[in-house]
Amino acid sequence: MSKQTLQLLTENFSIHSMDETADIPASVFRADVFFIAKTPDELSIVCPSTIHIDSFATESNWRALEVVGPLGFSLTGIMANISGVLAKANVSIFAISTYDTDYILVKQLQVDDAIKALKKDGYHFLN
Known about the structure:
The chain is an alpha+beta fold. The chain is 20% helix and 34% strand.
């Protein structure tokens, strides 16, 4: 399988953990890119760091690498391969998938190492 093309999004993201009954701020829905996940135990929101959310836990300074899609559901191993390359480079990730593609969030301090490791492994990047 040929290596996918990735692109680094310009936004700096924060990952918020909230009570499962919390209201989602309207400002989140106005962002160009955001992710929301809810379980019986929590509500997680990933959004640009410029959006203030009153959450009980926040991880800031994440950057997003987008796998340029759309990706077909029959494709296998994309996230496993990318996360494996980054694990070997000691880069921690937070992975998110959508209907069309995958996003790999890495801490701002490790983004250069992540891109270098992925390029060395044959991944392509859009400028």
